[in-house]
Structure formats: C-alpha cells, structure tokens
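Structure in, sequence out. Go:
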C-alpha cells in the first residue's frame, strides 16, 4: 500500500504540474504544491513511514546525485572564467552575508535564552542550504538562453559549494567542541573538502570530451 500511495503521489504531482503549466507557470511549482498537500503534514496520503523507509531514502539519494551531476556540468572552468569575477564575488557576498546575519540574529536570541551561542553558527550554516534543482528544471522546461540563464545556474552551484564549506566547517568545529576535543584536528579539513574533491573529480571526468 505504501508503494501504491507513492506511485499515486507521483501521478498526482505530474497532473498538478500540467495544470499549473496551463496558467504559464513552471511545472515544478505544481509538483511542490502536490507534495505539500499530499505529505504527512497535510492530507497524509504520503505517510511519514514512507519518508522514513530505507528504499525511499536510497531513491532520493540517487535522484540527488543525478541532479548534482547535471548541475556540475555547468561548472566547467572555461565557462566559469568567462562569467568573470563578478559572479564569484556576488555569490560569496550573498552567501557569507546570509550566514553572518542569521548567525548574529540567532546568537542574540540564544544569548538571552540561555542556549549555547555556538549553535547560532549551525543555524547560519543551515540557512545557506539552497535547492538549485528548481532553477535547472525551469531552464530546461522553457529552454531559456541568455546572460541571466548563463549566470543563474553557475551561481546556484557555487552557492551550494560555499554552503557546503561553511556548514561542514561549522559542524566540524561544533563536533570537536561538544566531544571535548576527541575529534582529531586533521579530520576537520577532511570532512570539509573530501566531498568537494570527489565532486570536482567526477565533474571533470563527465565533462571530458
């Protein structure tokens, strides 16, 4: 029954996407609306037991990897250079600016609430999490081309790279603080840069002629 509900949910999301497209909006908006309505926090057609099942998590992980590879093909170095320093500076400014503001706000709240202030940095790292898949979906659906599109996808990918670096840095430092220094210092850069290095290596292999 859980698998049948999952299939029915996919079909409902597909139909909702087609309906939303009729009013000149991206299909992915219909998928998101269907997910919110059918999910465990609304109608409950897709129960929490489905979201917690191991096979569902495996499927989601494979889908995430597929989208990551599709987005990673946009980060070819020769194309990245053509976008100029403005793209990198804009991405760093808005990402690190978001991290600083969110961390500051939660730090003040936690200070007066008696909650460890260092947890504010974790919230700041979480705030950097973005989903570039919708942008890729919209670009592919409408076959958009031009300077905005050429800048949007690389910026979305770079934004996630910055988010990963910041989050894992904060997570590693908090883990070491909470564990009383039992986590070796050399593990901090490993936790931060190993996933990025793996992604870069795969990206180069897939983009090679």
């Amino acid at each position: 029954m859980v698998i049948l509900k999952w299939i029915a949910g996919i079909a409902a999301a597909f139909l909702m996407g087609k309906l939303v497209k009729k009013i000149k909006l991206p299909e992915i908006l219909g998928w998101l609306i269907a997910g919110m309505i059918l999910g465990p926090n609304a109608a409950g057609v897709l129960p929490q037991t489905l979201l917690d099942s191991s096979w569902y998590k495996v499927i989601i992980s494979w889908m995430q990897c597929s989208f990551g590879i599709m987005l990673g093909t946009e980060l070819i170095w020769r194309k990245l250079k053509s976008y100029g320093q403005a793209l990198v500076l804009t991405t760093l400014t808005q990402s690190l600016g978001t991290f600083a503001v969110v961390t500051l706000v939660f730090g003040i709240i936690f200070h007066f609430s008696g909650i460890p202030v260092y947890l504010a940095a974790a919230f700041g790292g979480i705030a950097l999490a973005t989903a570039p898949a919708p942008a890729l979906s919209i670009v592919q659906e409408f076959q958009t081309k031009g300077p905005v599109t050429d800048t949007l996808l690389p910026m979305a990918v770079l934004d996630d790279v910055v988010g990963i670096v910041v989050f894992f840095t904060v997570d590693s430092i908090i883990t070491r603080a909470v564990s009383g220094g039992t986590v070796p210092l050399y593990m901090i850069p490993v936790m931060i840069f190993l996933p990025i290095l793996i992604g870069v290596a795969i990206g180069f292999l897939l983009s090679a002629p």
